[in-house]
Design a protein that fits this description.
alpha/beta, four-stranded parallel β-sheet, 4 strands, Rossmann fold, binds 4-nitrophenyl phosphate, globular, 13% strand
Amino acid sequence: MKGKYKILFVCLGNICRSPSAEAIMKKLVSDAGLSDRIEIDSAGIHSYHEGELPDSRMRMHGGRRGYKLDSRSRPVKTSDFFDFDVIIGMDDSNISDLKRKAPDVASLEKIHRMTDFSRKKLHDHVPDPYYGGASGFELVLDLLEDACAGLLDTISSTRDN
Ligand code: 4NP
């Protein structure tokens, strides 16, 4: 791979799904020995939770699987569209909000949907777990573990070694 490949995960609040994707992808990338080649961050469409740690329920469910969710919520900013190589939303609403925020055509092409990288293809989006119970948080982790593995495969197969 040439240069550092930069991935931004995006959800609505940046306290449940996208910080989990960030933690899962960081672990996969670290385990693959690629931490110096791939950079990962996350952000939210809204700034409601700016500065906060991930939701305590998400941290608990993620922690049980060995993920450290210690990022701080921040909103997506215009410079993200220039700084990152790929910007990955979790659901329809994230994708349409990202498209609305994109400053140019090149930025639009960076926007993708998390489940496009799924291997199992059981869901077409990562559902918002915020107002639901424990099973929603477990589903988020299942979907993200699968899609992050698929994303790493895609990056590895499409970039020069
Ligand atoms: P996330 O979940 O987008 O996965 O971080 C949510 C977090 C907060 C809210 C909604 C969804 N909220 O309405 O505050």
